[in-house]
Amino acid sequence: xxxxxxxxxxLVLFGLITAVSQAQAGCEEAPSGERTFTLCKVWPAYxxxxxxxxxxxxxxxxxxNNDGGNVDLELSLIRSSSSKRLANYLKKDAYYSDAVAYEGxxxxxxxxxxxxxxxxxxxxxxxxxSSSVNPYHKTELALYLKEGDTLRPVLEGLIIxxxxxxxxxxxxxxxxxxxxxxxIGNTTxxxxxxxxxxxxxxxxxxxxxxxxxxxxxxxxxxxRVTLEYDGKHYVVPVALKG
Length: 242
What we know:
Elements: H1 10-22, E1 37-42, E2 49-59, E3 69-79, E4 85-97, E5 101-115, E6 118-129, E7 136-147, E8 150-167, E9 173-189, E10 192-209, E11 212-219, E12 223-227
Antiparallel strand pairs: 1-2, 2-3, 3-4, 5-6, 6-7, 7-8, 8-9, 9-10, 10-11, 10-12
């Protein structure tokens, strides 16, 4: 059962923005396993601006145990002190939830300065298949820019982290975890800075020795890929795309 803070409806949320901003604290509380929620976060790069994200799950059936369904995503940029909406974005069926279930999202306000006058914010969306034998988790990153009264996605579907494995349900097995970082490059294409994506893979093996379950892990060499802006969006290679 979600707490009141997690289940803020839009009217209550907007009424609280001013107090949150004055307290210089974000109002984000990441949902856990819930697909319908509203959260927000003060944007540190800009005075008096708050990012609001609403996720709405539409199940395939009335069966409460059915994970299948589509998820709508709505983003807003609002004036913290007045609740005035500055820009908006709505994408129907932004995600699909099934055996690999949509687990929620978080707002990323890292320094995504793509041009001298253009700074983006990120949305990280998480998906998970819970299994003791074949677990899987991934997080995707999208970046959005304010253009007039709209928010435009300039990067979508970049897998920022994954973990997967094959286990015997007891101890033995192998797993792999990939972590990626995004840095602003020194070169530009079509007016926007290139994005440098660094990937680090850690391989883990579990094995039983007597009554104990032991493990070993090793990191593979970090690799880097540069994403270029084609005039509409950053082109993400298939190998990095969700």
